[in-house]
Every structure is written in C-alpha cells, then in structure tokens.
Request: fold
Amino acid sequence: MIYYLLLPVLLLLLVIVQITILDLFSLGWIGMEISLIVVIYAGFHLDALRGGILSLLLGFFLDCLTSAIFGLYMFLYVLIFYLSNIAGGKIYAGRPALIASFTALCTLLEGAVIVFFYRFVFGADILDAIPKIFVPQAVVLGCMSPLFFVLLKRFEVFLHAEDRRPARRI
Reply:
C-alpha cells in the first residue's frame, strides 16, 4: 500500500531532479532523461497496469513542467512503455548490450516523434536537432541505462521488502 502512495511523490522528485540538477551537469547541451530509462525498465519488469500508470504519471509530470505540447510526453512514455513491454516478453532483458541498444533506439524514437509533432503542430522545422541533440542523448542514455537498471532493480526490491517475522505478544 505504501508503494502506491509513495510512487507519485518519488516520480515527481525524479522529474524535478532530472530537470534541475542533471541539466547543470550536462550544461544544457543534452538532457539526461532518467525518466525514459525508468519507463523502459518498467516495460521490461512490471505488468501492464502498474507500468502503464507509472509511465503515464512520469509523462504527466514532464508535460506539466517542460512540454510546450501538453500530452506529448504522456503519449510518448506510454508508447515506449508498451513497446518495451512487448520487447521484454520476446527477448532476454538481462544483457547490458541489449539494454543499452534498446534504450538508445527508444531515445531516437522519442526524438523523431518530437520533431514530427513540432513540425505539424507549430510548423517549426527542427530536423537538424536530431544529429545535434538526440543522437548524443541516445548514446549517453544507452551507456547509462545498464547501470540504472541495476539500481532500479535494487530499489524495487527495497520497496517490496516485507517483514516475515511472526507478530510478538505484547
């Protein structure tokens, strides 16, 4: 029960840390979207309901804080979650090279959809952002994702830890 109460708070903190602190380390050049790695991890390791809610909440928080098109990140994160969920059922998601390549592919997919939406909603041609921003971001997230998968696995075990000792008499 505490998991469901703590989840939105932790996801909001993740988005705030991602937007503020991680942008300082990258000097505003490329954004390190740890939330995307969390969504991919959820697609590989969580069921459809829990992971779908997690990705929807992450997308909502990102839309509220950063997006010019409301609903863009909610759509993207739910799409990437379900692609990860389908891929997680077909492949072995424990190999670091596979995790890194899938994360890089999902980052490039996210960048292509963002460029597509900006082109058709605002009429802005930001196609040159793909090699300048999204390809380096895909490389960085691909390299960082196996480490974050290990950390998220340990964090998931921490959240689901239970005390199995029998109740003591008072």
